[in-house]
Amino acid sequence: MKREESIDIAAPPEKIWPLLVKRESILAIDPLIKSFDFVGEQHGGVGKMCYMDKESSGRRIRSLCRFTEWEENKKLALNQFMGDVARMQVAYTIEATEGGSRLTLMYEVVMPYWIIGKILELLVLRPVMNEVGPQVVANLKRLAEA
How far apart are CA 72 and CA 27, in angstroms? Predict the structure, then answer.
């Protein structure tokens, strides 16, 4: 299941970028994330790993992710490679505009368990994605424009 959200933000990319890569900001942006931390000493860059605990519908979801793109002030992408989904990809793109920036969030989640997973995508995942995606970009806008 794939979804994309975009929003115009009255702030330059340099003000948005730190919100995407600092632990405290990440916890404030995504209402599902309950804990987040980088794995190891390095706190950024392609190949860097992070650990997340999310909570959805009273269920705890633990995952280990790897950053696949890290272009400061432009693009951040990560893939989940351990967790309860078959595949999860998340990408933030920041484009400078005349009035500030345009932020686009793209995420794709594929559930395991073949046909049962497809049913879970429709009944469980889609409603969560429809609610949380707009919240994430709205929170980024609010924090960047503050």
Answer: 20
